[in-house]
Amino acid sequence: MSIYMNNGATTWPKPECVARAMYDFLTGGGANVARGSASKRDLKSMDTVLSCREELVSLFGGWDDDPRYATFTANVTESINVVLKGFLKPGMTVLASSMEHNAVLRPLRRLETRGVRLEIAACDEEGFLRPDVFAEALSRTRPDLVILSHASNVCGTVQDLPALSAICREGGVPFVADCAQTAGILPLNMTELGLAALCFTGHKGLLGPQGIGGIVWNPEFAQKVEWFVEGGTGSFSHLEFQPDAMPDKFEAGTPNLPGIAGLLAALSWLRETGIDAVRAREELLGARLLTGLLSLPGVRLSGRRTMEGRLPVFAANFEGRDNGLVAGRLSEEFGIETRPGLHCAPLAHKTLGTFPGGALRLSPGYFTAEEDVDSTLSALRAILDS
Ligand SMILES: Cc1ncc(COP(=O)(O)O)c(C=O)c1O
To answer: What is the count of structural domains for the chain?
Structure first.
């Protein structure tokens, strides 16, 4: 028996069409993009890349649905690095929250050593950033940029993006969202929210392969961000300097084309299935797991204790038990995959009061069966009874 309860790390399985599209790309096309003689194979690659950009701006409500403002990276970590290191200069101030993943914190700590001032807005013990607390932090620290994760990868708490982005808009501060955990699961419209940039990764809620992510940009903000990789773009080849035109500005070198083909298939699958259907399924599974977890003896659950304002990502500790050992037994004795420890988010665990021990994270996904949730709960009960 094998049960996958680690969708917070990466979703699995993927819709079948994802692997097929990658296989088809490599066997049926496989040409580089904008680096050929406009053969049929070249055009096919260009079409795949453009179609993927179009799906992205459509899914995330990109400015004027302009596909040039969706650029690719390897993952959301790279996306965040591109934005932060391309925008923040010595003397500037950046405001983040106490629930950030290391993908946000580590670049910011590095930038701090180069003269950027980092301010942290405190989330409550459930990992929620109260809009009034955020508004106070914003007016006190007067940042040049705000970056926040939309939802916690540790305990699933979802931030109030409309309220937070309205505060940023009022203060005239560009707002960048790390949507690693929410893209493909919660509706997102960056134009309505007024986001400066939306950073995503392909392999989580978007159900695509690993190694592909990106940024959807507000055009004005994109102009203010410097690229940090230079090289061939398959365009403006007469220039010895990096072109300023989008999307080339942020895309030097050959992109992960099989990854883009896989992501395109995943995005088409999501559009046909509907985000609402995905969300409804995840709510149902989450509610089932939450009710069961709360009934276990000696359980200490971090984050929200209802399904409101959360994703089905649960962080649990059990009285007198080491979460790493519980995870080991779940895996070895029951074939159940989870993730114990700190989840690349030490500051979030400090906020939740679970540092340095961390927690056992259980995260079902769209393809998890109800019986898998029940079997996981039975296995946990058996371990706790032993
Ligand atoms: C909130 C958040 N940000 C950033 C990341 C980093 O994602 P990736 O490894 O795809 O760059 C993750 C992954 O766990 C995450 O959950």
So the answer is: 2
pLDDT single digits (tens) 132-179: 999 999 999 999 999 999 999 999 999 999 999 999 999 999 999 999
Last residue within a domain, chosen from 215, 246, 273: 273
User: Domain ends where: 205, 240, 273?
Assistant: 273
Distance between Cα 102 and ligand 1 center (Å): 8
Ligand 1 centroid, distance to 257 Cα (angstroms): 21
**What angle is formed at CA 26 by the lines to CA 23 and CA 27, rounded to 5 degrees?**
80
Residues 268 and 278 in one domain: no
- Determine the atom of ligand 1 nearest the C-alpha atom of 204: 10
The pLDDT assigned to 110 comes to 98
Distance between CA atoms of residues 260 and 275, nearest Å = 20
Report the pocket of ligand 1 as residue ranges, CB < 6 Å.
Answer: 75-77, 101, 103, 149, 153, 178, 180-181, 201, 213
Nearest to 150 by CA among 189, 183, 103, 102: 183
Structural domain range at position 8: 3-12+274-385
**pLDDT, tens only, 251-263:** 999 999 999 999 9
Ligand 1 pocket test, pick from 344, 347, 349 with the greatest ligand atom count within 8 Å of Cβ, gives: 344
Are residues 211 and 350 part of one domain?
no
The pTM assigned to this predicted structure is 0.97
How many CB atoms within 10 Å of residue 276? 9
Q: Please tell me whether residues 214 and 267 are part of one structural domain.
A: yes
Q: Residues 80, 163: one domain? A: yes
Residues 267 and 281 in one domain: no
| CATH code, 280 | 3.90.1150.10
Q: Measured between alpha carbons, how far is residue 243 from residues 2, 50, 252 in Å?
A: 49, 19, 10
Asked whether residue 157 falls in the same domain as residue 291, the answer is: no
The Å distance, Cα 334 to ligand 1 centre, comes to: 27
**Residues 218, 81 share a domain:** yes
Distance of CA 278 to the CA centre of its chain: 16
Residue 1 has pLDDT above 90, yes or no: no
Measuring from atom 15 of ligand 1, which residue has the nearest CA?
A: 180
Are 172 and 107 contained in the same domain? yes
State the closest ligand 1 atom to the C-alpha of 152, by its place in the atom list counted from 1: 1
Q: What is the mean pLDDT of residues 283-306?
A: 97
Strand partners, 176: 147, 197
In this structure, what are the phi and psi dihedrals at residue 225, rounded to the nearest 5 degrees? -100, 130
From atom 2 of ligand 1, which residue's Cα is the shortest distance away? 180
